[in-house]
Specification:
The chain is mainly beta. The chain contains no helices and 22 strands.
């Protein structure tokens, strides 16, 4: 099989800039979410401040200009911007193209191309195209960052002779809190895939569509209570429309440091499916202890049929070598 690839390696750094006019020698300080990230004395002139240390989610920025001669004549400038790590800088683009074909089988030649483009500092769009002599896939997606969270919307289509035209679409939303906030993050997603959609390009002539459309949803929420207790709640649902019941799962997890170098964690899950309509409850608890930077031990059990003990040791503090010891399948009900 032959493969040829071409494209960009990595995106540019975020290029958002803010213009500030300094009329006289002044101390200029930049705050992001009330945290000082830049402070310097500047001479009179016009400055374009760049390379802001934005965090995921909403960023409330405040720029303070304090004249050296008279600090009481202080000026402040404020702006709010949403940021997402998936964004490209305005005008920046990433693209990749590939061509592959098995030897002596030109009918299975596959060409793929995708490109991302930063429309603005808050919006990045992307398209993807893949085709072979017998099938075609095309998709569009957009990432939009706002002070109220990030939105990701996508739509895709596929076409081939055995299945015909298929469509798939999804939308997701996520927002993150600051490091000091008890609120961690929230993410929501929903998607629909029609019965004829597929991402495959090699489709047997005898292939038939799925029995029904598929609906997917998920959510996750994380945060902390006080300075020590952290928790997360997540769930997912998958429903094939020809089934009477969906498959779903909800999991609550938490962790807390008990004493220096020791922490305990636990989780509880509920699960159900068309084959198991009555929800099942599963739990797990774990303990981790670090003797020193080079030696640590952990243990976990669901108190039913799965338990393990694991130890990790880095000889003489080596960063390239480590030894692992694992003991699993411990049974508490053996005579």
């Amino acid at each position: 099989e032959k493969r040829y690839n071409y494209g960009d390696a990595r995106p540019k750094d975020h290029q958002y800039e803010y213009r500030v006019v300094v009329d006289e020698p002044s101390i200029v300080e930049v705050f992001i979410n009330e945290r000082s990230v830049y402070r310097r004395e500047l001479q009179a002139g016009t400055y374009r401040l760049r390379d802001f240390a934005f965090t995921q989610g909403a960023n409330y920025a405040r720029i303070v200009v304090e004249p050296v001669a008279d600090p009481t004549r202080q000026q402040e400038y404020e702006f709010v911007i949403g940021f997402d790590s998936r964004l490209l800088s305005r005008g920046d683009t990433l693209y990749a193209a590939s061509l592959s074909f098995p030897q002596f089988d030109i009918d299975n030649t596959v060409f793929r191309v995708n490109q991302q483009y930063g429309l603005t500092d808050e919006i990045t769009t992307q398209y993807s195209l893949a085709f072979s002599p017998s099938a075609l896939n095309f998709g569009l997606s957009n990432v939009i960052a706002t002070p109220f969270g990030s939105f990701d919307a996508s739509i895709a289509s596929s076409y081939n002779a055995p299945l015909g035209l298929g469509l798939s679409g999804s939308i997701s939303y996520r927002i993150s809190g600051s490091d000091e906030s008890p609120f961690g993050s929230l993410s929501l997603s929903a998607g629909l895939t029609t019965r004829r959609y597929t991402t495959r390009l090699a489709i047997p002539v005898t292939e038939t569509p799925a029995p029904g459309h598929t609906i997917d949803t998920s959510f996750s929420f994380s945060g902390r209570v006080g300075p020590r207790l952290r928790y997360s709640l997540g769930g997912s649902l998958n429903w094939l429309t020809t089934d009477t019941l969906p498959t779903w799962r909800v999991t609550l997890s938490s962790g807390i440091p008990l004493i220096p170098r020791m922490s305990v964690s636990g989780s509880v899950s509920l699960y159900a499916s068309p084959a198991v309509p009555t929800p099942l409850v599963r739990g797990q608890i774990g303990l981790n202890y670090s003797f020193n930077p080079n030696l640590s031990m952990s243990a976990s059990t669901n108190l039913e049929d799965s338990s393990y003990v694991n130890a990790s040791w880095r000889p003489f503090g080596s960063s390239n070598s480590s030894m692992q010891f694992s003991f699993s399948g411990i049974g508490f009900d053996d005579p």
